Structure formats: C-alpha cells, structure tokens
DNA sequence: GCCGTTTTCGGCCCGACTGTTTTCAGTCG
C-alpha cells in the first residue's frame, strides 16, 4: 500500500469519526496523520522495514497510527475502517458534504429520520419532515434543498488558471469601487494551489457596506449566500463561491496572513505565537496580558516578525517545509519566471502544433529565452501525424538551415518527444535518437497498464543513454484523468543514477510532476527539474508561469531548475553529455 | 490520537455568521 492510499484511509477514518461525534482532537489527529504521510518524501513501508529508523519520529504519527499503518502495509485494509463504513455507508457520508450540512447535522438526519442517501434527504425536505427536528427549522430545510442542487457542481474545484480568470474579472469590477482602498486575493489562489475551491478577497474599505454592495453588483453573481457587517459570500458560475472580508487598514497584514492560510500553516503559526505568550488572529498580534492593543498587523511581514519568523512566501504555506526552512536561516529565494532561460518542450506544424519552428523561435526570443527545443511527437502518435525517422531528420535539416539566422540570439535544439511504447522500448531507433540534442521520453498509450508494466516502461526509457528527460512523468490531467499507476520512487532512483532529468510540465491542466513529487525528486534525489510549456502554439509558451508557481510550491530555487541555466551550463547535468 | 523548555496528563488556533435559540451549537474557512 502506497502513501497516498494510507493517507486516504486516515482521511476516511477522520470523516467517519466525525460522523460518530468523536472527540474533535482525535479526528484532527487522523487528518494530521494523513497529511504527514502525504508529505513524506519516501514510502512509509521503507521506513517500517528499516530497523534503524522509527516511523513514530515523523511528527503527527504516534504509536497508534504506526500500528494502523503496519496493519495497512501488511494486509491492505484496516478493520476499524471497515467497521465504521458498515455503520455509515458512503451515501450517508455524502450528506455531510451538502453545503450547510456538516457531520453533526447529517448524522442526526440519519439517526433520527433514517435518511440513508441524498435522494431520501431531498424527499424528506420536500415533504417537510426536516423542519420539525430539534435544531432545524424551515430555513435549514430550504438551505439543504438549495445545497443539494449545487452539491454536484461544487464537487469539483476549479483549476488555478480558471480561478485566475475569475480573479481578473473581479479585480476589474471592484477597481471601480471608490470605497475600496486596498485589495488582495488570498486563500488557495494566493498560495498558487493547482486548484481552488473558492476565492477569498480581502479589502480595506470605507464604508464597508459600499464594498459589499459593489461585490453584490458583480454581474455574474447568482446569489448572496450570507452577508454580515464585515463578511459577505456570493456565488458565481454554477457553484463557485467568492468571499469578501472588510478589515481596517492597520489589520490588513494580519488578515491577509490569516486568510491566505493554509489552515495547517495557520495552526502552526498560532501555536508558535501562543508558546511565546502571544495571540494571533485576523486583527493582529496581541500580548496575552494586553489583548486590547495589537503589536503588529498592518503588513504580513510584521506578523511573522512578531513571532520570530521571516516572511514566508504564500506558495510554501502548507506546514510542509517552511518552518524548518525558516529556522535554518536560509533565505527562501524561490524560483521566478525571469530565471527561466529555455523552454525544452514544444510542438510545431510538423505534428499537432499550430506554429512553425521560426514562429516559435521568434516568440521565444520575445519572451526572453535563449534556447528552445523543438520536440514534436514520434511516429506512434499517429493522430498527431507523429514523425518517423525520415521526417524527423528533415525537420532537423530545417533547423540547421534556420540556425544561422538566430546565431547569438537563440539556440534551437534538435529534439523529439519520443513515445515509450506499450510493450516497452522507444518509438524511434537508437541511431536516430543519438543524433538529437535533446530527447524527451513520454507515455501516451497504454496508461491503464499495471503498475509494474508502466514502471518498467519508464525505467527502460531512463536506461536509454540518449534519453535526456522524462516528460509529464505521471500522465495526470487535473480534474480529468488520474495519474497512471507508477512506482515513482523507482523512477526517481533510476533518474538520479543515470542523470536523466525530470520535467515539470507547466500546462495548467497537467502540472506534472505535482508539487510533492517535485519536491521529493529535487530535495531528496537531487534530480534537476526542467520546467517546460509543452506549447502547441505561440500563446502556449505563456503557460510557463503556472509551472513556476507549482515549482515554488515544491520549494524549488534557481539552482534546482535545470533550465534556469543556459543550454551549455545545463549539459553537465545530463548523462547523455558526460 | 498526538505531544512535551508548562512532559505522561491535559491541553490541542481562532473568529464570523446563521438559525434556532433565549445563550449557543453548527458550519465554514
């Protein structure tokens, strides 16, 4: 059982225990345990097997969870979980995810009215059975009915790039509000998470009501979910929630810190504050003995400084590595878009791209790049008219012709995105690959094969001396397709041994490697990461920014990113050039 | 269930808003 599966078991335990009305701290312990395992940079089984190490040394994992993990690794299932699932089937749990309902209320509906699923819940509301229950009223009943209607749509978070589109529209709309003096988008959007469940807007405004009125006048608004003196939530689109909080100017930093999260990061920040006799909330930092006067709060930096921390980049605020990093005294200095020198994955009209080599080269120069690799598909990708050896060599001859025009301005590499075939092996013969400057290997077909098969295929590609990097190593498409089954640690191990680079594909639907894998590959295995756009058009080159955001979340600095160097400086990183 | 420069018990981050309550529990972030 891999880390992700174990983490999922603990998340399910937490959800079920909450349903049962268990001690909230015990529930949190399961959440924390799940997170701790997910953030580990190696399989838990590996730690269990090593007699010189203790799994209970991992913060958040105590004796009980170690026992449960041991059972999970040995048997693949957990008796306690099965027991709870029998008591509360998944259809019952789904009720707790209806907006307005939580575990407690959902459990009562199940226990007192015998409601087992969403369909029965709907009927119960429509036949007025719910409003008679103690603690429920007509309004609660209507809230549930409304919640049921949007529960489906709300199940999916928006990709960051789509959330960014809403941010642009909201920014533009709110900028015409005279009452708003300062504005920032916080939450998972600011942290650059690959998906966003909602948007959090923080404003300084006078009067506060004017800012809220203005938000309510946002044309795509579907409804106002709630509105108080300082806080308003509206719904746009099918089920996308936008929250706004109005704070005073001298509270803005504290509020921004608070609403940027993550929750886990904030829990740590406040615990640290508490240990120092301080209290941190969204209004400022306060001494325990003087809760009236804030000692910090106007800017985020002050809040962190008050508890002895440097300002933490939002992308790192996940309670993953930022606190140890801060303690070490090393500056964060995360990778930035301007550090990128080259883009080594793009397609042209030769296969499924929309622009020619020359177009792409000119566009790359306009974006400040000094090298690109032309990496069209290989022959197996027939749908995209993938290149056979002859057409590939013709393309390379064309690159030879073009190179003099770009001398001193842009290095155009002869590349290929070569498929890793279903039966193993590369889609082009070695003598062809040997002529390339840059060979990406990737899996497009047979993604539903077994973990062993796919892992073997990728390890085979890594063992090929001509392969310089593995493109989109896990094949996932956010919100659309799960990653294929692969022993990612074996891939990292092999890549490290052969000096094969790994790609962080910047396409906002891929972002593959995802951040935790990317962090592991970089920090634990010292594998240089190459961030590429996989552009199929000139505009496609602009997705680099999303890859940078993801790389920052993985804690990558300039020196961890291969293409934050010139092409010549990159060569020593690769086995092919040694 | 975890954890310890307040150590093996007794804590565990903090507040806004809503609905159904007469002082607060539940939900949400």
From TrEMBL:
Q: Domain named Polymerase/histidinol phosphatase N-terminal: which ranges? A: 342-422
Kindly indicate whether the keyword Cell membrane belongs to this entry.
no
Q: Which UniProt keywords apply?
A: DNA damage, DNA repair, DNA replication, DNA synthesis, DNA-directed DNA polymerase, Exonuclease, Hydrolase, Methylation, Nuclease, Nucleotidyltransferase, Sodium, Transferase, Ubl conjugation
**Domain DNA-directed DNA polymerase X, which positions?**
1-318
Record EC number: 2.7.7.7, 4.2.99.18
Where in the cell does this protein reside? Cytoplasm
Q: Where does the protein principally reside?
A: cytoplasm
One GO process term, biological-process aspect:
DNA repair
Ion transport recorded as keyword: no
* One annotated GO molecular function: zinc ion binding
Which cofactors are required for activity?
Mg(2+)
> Its GO CC terms?
cytosol
Task: Please list the residue ranges annotated as the Helix-hairpin-helix DNA-binding motif class domain.
Answer: 53-72, 93-112, 128-147
Question: What is the reaction catalyzed?
Answer: a 5'-end 2'-deoxyribose-2'-deoxyribonucleotide-DNA = (2E,4S)-4-hydroxypenten-2-al-5-phosphate + a 5'-end 5'-phospho-2'-deoxyribonucleoside-DNA + H(+); 2'-deoxyribonucleotide-(2'-deoxyribose 5'-phosphate)-2'-deoxyribonucleotide-DNA = a 3'-end 2'-deoxyribonucleotide-(2,3-dehydro-2,3-deoxyribose 5'-phosphate)-DNA + a 5'-end 5'-phospho-2'-deoxyribonucleoside-DNA + H(+); DNA(n) + a 2'-deoxyribonucleoside 5'-triphosphate = DNA(n+1) + diphosphate
User: Which InterPro entries does the record match to this protein?
Assistant: DNA-dir_DNA_pol_X (IPR002054), DNA_pol_B_palm_palm (IPR028207), DNA_pol_lamdba_lyase_dom_sf (IPR027421), DNA_Pol_thumb_sf (IPR037160), DNA_pol_X (IPR022312), DNA_pol_X_beta-like (IPR002008), HHH_MUS81 (IPR010996), Hlx-hairpin-Hlx_DNA-bd_motif (IPR003583)
* Purpose: Repair polymerase that plays a key role in base-excision repair. During this process, the damaged base is excised by specific DNA glycosylases, the DNA backbone is nicked at the abasic site by an apurinic/apyrimidic (AP) endonuclease, and POLB removes 5'-deoxyribose-phosphate from the preincised AP site acting as a 5'-deoxyribose-phosphate lyase (5'-dRP lyase); through its DNA polymerase activity, it adds one nucleotide to the 3' end of the arising single-nucleotide gap.
Show the NCBIfam families listed in the entry: PRK08609.1 (NF006375)
Protein name stated in the entry: DNA polymerase beta
Origin species, per record, is: Rosistilla oblonga
């Amino acid at each position: 059982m891999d880390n992700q599966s174990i983490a999922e078991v603990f998340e399910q335990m937490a959800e079920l225990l909450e349903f049962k009305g268990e001690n909230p701290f015990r529930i949190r312990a399961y959440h924390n345990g799940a997170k701790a395992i997910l953030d580990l940079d190696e399989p838990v089984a590996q730690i269990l097997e090593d007699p010189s190490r203790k799994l209970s040394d991992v913060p958040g994992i105590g004796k009980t969870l170690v026992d449960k993990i041991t059972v999970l690794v040995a048997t693949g299932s957990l008796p306690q979980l099965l027991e709870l699932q029998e008591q509360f089937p998944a259809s019952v749990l789904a009720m707790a995810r209806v907006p307005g309902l939580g575990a407690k209320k959902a459990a009562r509906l199940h226990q007192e009215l015998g409601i087992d699923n969403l369909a029965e819940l709907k009927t119960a509301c429509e036949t007025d059975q719910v409003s008679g229950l103690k603690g429920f009223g007509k309004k609660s009943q209507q809230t549930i009915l409304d919640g049921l209607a949007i529960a489906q749509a709300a199940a999916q978070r928006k990709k960051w790039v789509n959330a960014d589109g809403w941010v642009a529209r909201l920014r533009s709309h709110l900028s015409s509000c005279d009452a708003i003096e300062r504005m920032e988008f916080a939450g998972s959007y600011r942290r650059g998470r690959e998906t966003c469940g909602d948007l959090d807007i923080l404003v300084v405004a006078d009067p506060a009501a004017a800012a809220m009125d203005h938000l309510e006048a946002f044309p795509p608004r579907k409804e106002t979910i709630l509105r108080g003196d300082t806080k308003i939530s509206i719904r746009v689109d099918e089920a996308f929630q936008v929250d706004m909080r109005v704070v005073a100017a001298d509270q803005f930093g504290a509020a921004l810190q608070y609403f940027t999260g993550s929750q886990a990061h904030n829990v740590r920040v406040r615990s640290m504050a508490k240990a120092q006799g301080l209290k941190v909330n969204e209004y400022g930092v306060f001494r325990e003995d003087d809760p009236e006067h804030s000692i910090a709060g106007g800017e985020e930096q002050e809040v962190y400084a008050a508890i002895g921390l440097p300002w933490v980049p939002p992308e790192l605020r996940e309670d993953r590595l930022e606190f140890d990093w801060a303690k070490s005294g090393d500056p964060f200095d995360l990778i930035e878009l301007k550090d990128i020198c080259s883009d080594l994955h793009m397609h042209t009209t030769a296969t499924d791209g929309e622009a020619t080599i020359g177009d792409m080269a000119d566009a790359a120069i306009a974006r400040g790049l000094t090298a690109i690799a032309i990496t069209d598909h290989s022959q197996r990708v027939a749908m995209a008219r993938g290149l056979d050896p002859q057409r590939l060599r013709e393309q390379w001859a064309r690159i030879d012709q073009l190179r003099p025009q770009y001398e001193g301005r842009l290095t155009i590499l002869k590349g290929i995105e070569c498929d890793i075939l279903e039966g193993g092996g590369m889609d082009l013969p070695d003598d062809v690959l040997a002529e390339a400057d840059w060979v990406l290997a990737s899996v497009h077909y047979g993604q539903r094969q077994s973990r062993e098969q796919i892992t073997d295929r990728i390890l085979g590609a890594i063992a090929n001396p001509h392969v310089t990097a593995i493109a989109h190593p896990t094949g996932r498409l956010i919100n659309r397709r799960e990653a294929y089954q692969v022993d990612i640690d074996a891939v990292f191990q092999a890549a490290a041994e052969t000096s094969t680079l790994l790609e962080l594909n910047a396409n906002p639907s891929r972002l593959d490697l995802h951040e935790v894998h990317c962090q592991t590959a970089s920090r634990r295995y010292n594998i240089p990461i190459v961030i590429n756009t996989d552009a199929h058009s000139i505009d496609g080159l602009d997705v680099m920014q999303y890859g940078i955001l993801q790389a920052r979340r993985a804690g990558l600095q300039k020196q961890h990113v291969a293409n934050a160097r010139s092409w010549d400086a990159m060569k020593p990183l690769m086995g092919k050039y040694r």
